[in-house]
Write a structure and sequence with these properties.
29% helix, alpha+beta, 190 residues
Length: 190
């Protein structure tokens, strides 16, 4: 896989190029048809006090995977970007495998359920929607504050958390932003 480097007001040394080649070369394990990777490096602010922004775009047979990470250390930003791309590549490969497994003869497919009696043969938590199986997850919610929701989300290691906000007496969706802070989505009545 060919690696192309572009620096915007940043000098890219040979050590960085070698490290990037090694890290991005591992992606060919999941993307054997990867043609090239473009590594864009820039700084967020002027001078030496800004964070490095590393964006990598991988072209694999007409499909593109892209990741961008920020860090004060250039190599740490590259490693985080390579890790994110690795996750995307694994997911892409799994999707591709699942697509090939979906090619099942019409006779072997599950029938589309038209009534509740026909849905009883499915395992609990699985519903048939337009011919596709969708997993339904149900859980009990106890009202909690924003601080408790953040603590629970961090404990679970998730990037988002749905909870019942006890202060507002409504559902709320808490999510982690790229800058490390949190955001919250609240429903609004019409």
């Amino acid at each position: 896989m060919e690696t192309i480097f572009r620096g915007q007001h940043v000098h890219i040394d040979d050590g960085f190029r070698v490290h990037a080649g090694e890290r991005l070369g591992k992606l060919t394990r999941y993307l054997p048809l990867a043609d090239h990777a473009i590594v864009d490096v820039r700084r967020e602010a002027k001078g030496d006090e800004g964070r490095f922004v590393v964006q990598v775009t991988v072209s694999a047979n007409g499909r593109f995977l892209r990741a961008e990470e920020r860090n004060f250390d250039l190599l740490a930003a590259l490693d985080a970007t390579a890790s994110a791309l690795s996750t995307q590549a694994k997911r892409f490969k799994e999707k591709k495998l699942l697509r090939s497994e979906r090619r099942v003869p019409k006779e072997a497919r599950l029938p589309i359920a038209t009534s509740e009696e026909e849905e009883e043969h499915l395992p609990p938590g699985i519903d048939l929607v337009l011919g596709r199986l969708v997993k339904m997850k149900r859980f009990t919610m106890k009202p909690m504050t924003e601080a408790e929701a953040i603590e629970q989300m961090e404990e679970l290691g998730h990037n988002f958390f749905l909870f019942e906000d006890e202060d507002r007496d409504t559902l709320a969706l808490l999510y982690r932003r790229r800058d490390g802070d949190y955001g919250m989505i609240l429903p609004e009545t019409a």
